[in-house]
Specification:
Length: about 250
Amino acid sequence: GRLNLARLRADGVDISAVRIDPELPSGTAFVRYRSDGGRDFVFNIKHSACGAVRATPQSVALLAEAGHLHVMGSSLFSPALVEATLSALEEIKGRGGTISFDPNIRKEMLGLPGLEAALHAVLERTDLFLPSGQELFLFTSAREEASAVAEILTRARAVVIKRGADGSSYFDRDAALHAAAFPAKEVDPTGAGDCFAGAFVVGWLNGVAPGEALRRANAAGALAVTRKGPMEGAASAAELDRFLASHR
């Protein structure tokens, strides 16, 4: 936990609302890599400091300044966090802010009580939806991509599908775009989708055209997989610019 705080601080992230629990351990996730490219996860989250997250004066003050909230489905592992997330969504949407939502659901989580209802509640308030591959079908009865996207777009403003080595796609009610992936030597895929989502959301919030935002996000994902460790391949804006300049 202290390692992560130090890295966030060095990257200029506001960590004023992070509370250090005096007794509980930091949450952990262990990843097993299979020869076919699959992964299994073992989590110690619910019974860690993560499981004791609650509102504090610092978090309330920080939320009051926010115009956008990014929700990860993997964070919805306890009733307390679901309640806190939905409350934050209502506050931000109530003052005209926007929401992005990356389901990021691991198969080990699918049986958690209340998770499905929580995911659908978040989607109902989502502006930008960022599923990976088959996650799109968790939220619709459609079995074909086009129909599923059309159904999601009755609620969200835009859908971005992460396709890994097959690139990515953007859909809104007026456009459909695809961007090819960049060639990359995969060392560790864990965290690549998070880097992709972070890069795309930043572009989207800053008015970058969807096609260019997809390209930058693909670059972030490509750089992420080349390093071992889910945090080691996270690129800065300057690193993305250099990478993209070398792939014109």
